[in-house]
Design brief:
This protein has 5 helices and no strands. With 119 residues, it is mostly helical. Helix 1 packs antiparallel against helix 2, helix 2 packs antiparallel against helix 3 and helix 2 packs across helix 4.
Amino acid sequence: GAYMILILFVLFTVYSFIEMEDKYVDKETMGLRNILVVATCIQMFSSVHYLAMRMNYYFILFVPIVISKISVRGNKDDKVIVKVINVVLCAFFLFYFFYSAETGADILNIFPYETFWSR
């Protein structure tokens, strides 16, 4: 399950670097993109140990915010590409959610929730 989220984060990171242009982006969006890069780097270690994934929970909260900001403030010339990418990302999210719900996989290891320092 960690590999699927890693693929998703890599896709988001590549999308953020392709779509964002410095002349359209403010400091907040750049900071959020940096958080996305940190989340991607942490996710690379989640297949080694579950604590990396649990540390990444705090950064995952910002991923939908940065994707929506990139779609709004991204390159204004590529409106068709942005629409296609938004559809593909939404379809991937929906497929991933229903696949995980159907298989009963608790890939995020969140139920029952325990703080990472209690182990």
